[in-house]
Design goal:
By secondary structure, the chain is α/β, with parallel strands linked by helices. It has helices at residues 2-23, 31-38, 52-57, 73-80, 95-106, 117-123; strands at residues 27-29, 44-48, 64-65, 86-90, 111-114.
Length: 130
């Protein structure tokens, strides 16, 4: 009986550690810190993961677009994103980019996610292009 309880505890602990690691594969930052990070253009790639129409409405200057909703997201990311640079990622509200951040981190990228997305960016009065 003790062996079964021990095994259950080990399995649950391993599952919890794996989930904890998955949720910490990228860093969430606020608008001001994100702005400081993307100012380091030589070491950071700025990535917008929204749709093309959303991108045309407004985007952060110098952002590359790779639509998270497409089946080819990871393929395009592998082809276009250099591994030697951090990836600063954003979407509309931060949800899609968080999902993209997990996928990119699993591919070996160092990822920073804009908490609150472009909505938070614009609410803070930061520059956007159309």
């Amino acid at each position: 009986m003790y062996i079964i309880i021990f095994l259950v505890v080990v399995v649950v602990a391993a599952w919890a550690v794996k989930n904890k690691m998955d949720s910490n594969t990228y860093k969430n930052v606020g608008v001001d810190e994100f702005e400081q990070i993307i100012a380091q253009k030589d070491s950071v790639t700025l990535l917008d993961v929204r749709t093309l129409s959303e991108y045309h409405e407004a985007h952060i200057p110098n952002a590359m677009l790779i639509d998270m909703k497409t089946d080819s997201f990871l393929t395009a990311a592998r082809q276009q994103l250099p591994h030697d640079k951090k990836v600063a990622v954003y979407c509309r509200s931060g949800r899609r980019s968080a999902s993209a951040a997990v996928k990119l981190a699993k591919e070996g990228y160092t990822v920073i996610n804009l908490d609150g997305g472009i909505l938070a960016w614009m609410s803070a009065g930061k520059l956007v292009e159309q």
